[in-house]
Amino acid sequence: MNRASDLDAIADACIAAHAVIDDHGTPQMKMLIRVLLHVVAREIAQDLSLSQAQNNPLRDALGSLAKQRDDRG
Length: 73
Prior knowledge:
Blueprint: H1 3-24, H2 27-54, H3 57-72
Helix pairs in contact: 1-2
C-alpha cells in the first residue's frame, strides 16, 4: 500500500468508528474521534496539496524559464 491508500483506509476506519462512538460513546470518546478525523483530514489535504504542486504545469513552465535565464547568464 502507498501513503494515500493507507490514509484512505485510516479515514474509512475512523468514519466507521465515529458512527459507533456517536451512538454509544462517552463525550470524551466523541471528542477524541472528532480530533482524529480532523488530523486524518489534514494529512489527506496536505498530500493532495503536495501532489497538485508537483503536477503543476505553470510551476514547470516557470522553472524552465528560470533555468533558461540562468543558462544564459
